[in-house]
Amino acid sequence: MSGPVYTYPRRLPPLYRLARALRAASLLVLVLLILFTASVVFSTSQLSQTPPRVGSFSVGFGSNGTMILAGSLTLSNPGFYPIQALFLGARVANESGVFLGSFGFGPSTLASGASDEFPLELYLPVSATGPGASLLVHSQYLRIALWGNATFGFIFPAGVSLLDNRSWGAPFSNLAVGVGNLSLNGTVPVSVSFENQASLTEAGTLRAAVVATDGITCGSASWTLNVGQYQQFSQTQPVALSPGCSPAGGALAVEFVTPGYTVPLPPEAIP
Amino acid sequence: MSPPSPTPPTLGYRVPSLGWRITVASLRLIPLVLLFVGLPAAALSFLQSHSLPLPLSIVAVTIAGAVILALSTARYIAKPTRIYGPLSIAMSAFVLVYVFYILGRSTYAFLVPGSDVTLHLTYTGLIELLLLVPALSLAAGVVTTVEDARKARERLPYDYPP
After folding, report:
1. Where are the domains of chain B?
2. What three-state secondary structure class fits B93?
3. Are the Cβ atoms of A15 and B12 closer than 8 angstroms?
4. Where residue B1 falls among pLDDT bands split at 50, 70, 90?
5. What is the β-pairing status of strands B118-122 and A58-62?
6. Which residues of A118-150 are buried (b: 16+ CB within 10 A; e: fewer)?
7. For residue A190, how far is the Cα from the chain centroid?
8. Which residue in chain A is spatially nearest to B150 when comparing CA positions?
9. How many CB atoms are located within 10 Å of the residue A186 CB?
10. Which domains does chain A possess?
11. Rounded distance, CA A72 to CA A55, Å?
12. Predicted ipTM?
């Protein structure tokens, strides 16, 4: 390092001061951004210590002709930044790909160091003829599309989406209802069989009505049910038909009735 | 008759020779190459080796890093001259364009290998804040250019204090 030696005043010129201040501000912003980003990454990495917990799901019938799949999701935020704009959604289709229902929660905020439980409730319409009817009588794999969004460290939105297949146990799996031959005393045997593969106990009344082609009910039978999970139900009951009422060509209408709700099951045609 | 005002104190300073500045600029290149080319290219290659899509092209990152290095080195060597300000402006403007390029690609989505999970990450806010860095440097370059135009060598004693 060599060169001539010059002299200069100690006081900084104004333009030099300004340029130096701008460069210092630029460097300060860069350093702060690097530190902030590093702290957000560290804070977010803390989430792996407390992964989300999905509580056990319960299945039930709703009074509005729906099946309710209810569970909960517990999220904890051990980091030092809040998790904002938290949203979770799901779309459920049956194994044929027919849309059944969807649910979601949010947007919500999970404060730093907080833990919260979010309800997950999926209402699936189960009318006897709609796409949800198969849920009643056919155990299958449901296609679940899940997606979630959240903002970490105020300025880092992130999202996740995934596809999942979940097994579904039908409450009236392999439902078989049938009408036997008309006997001399004017009764027909009506038989019902199924297996409860849902995680609930079916307590209520099962009603079967023999309906003629013109819509008139020729006769009906009922069974008191108390069928636990994975229990088989198979019974036959004679049904007295109204005089002159012919069930041939009609249908056997079956419904499950409790004080809180009535669930129509897929009808069976009578040959 | 009032006594004459005291003359401001003055100090000596020495501008490094061109050879010395070239030597130091060459040494500066070692960490700068790692920072502007090595690390970004390594990070992108890591993603590529795990079959993940790249948020930025490796070629673009390498070229941009090389241009920044060239301008930074030229700027360092030319610091005692009047082209220091324009070179500072050129470098800041290029970094500004580069950060804008990154801003346009600041949403990154990828399928986690071997799963049905797709992750989306957005760092637009961070890149927008990062724009402040070259913008402030650009302003500093403009001020230095004006200063050199108004009074050549005015800043040299402070840039090269004894």
Report:
1. 18-150
2. helix
3. no
4. very low
5. unpaired
6. bebebbbbbebeebbbbbbbbbbebbbebbbbb
7. 36
8. A15
9. 14
10. 53-168 (2.60.40.10), 173-269 (2.60.40.10)
11. 5
12. 0.88
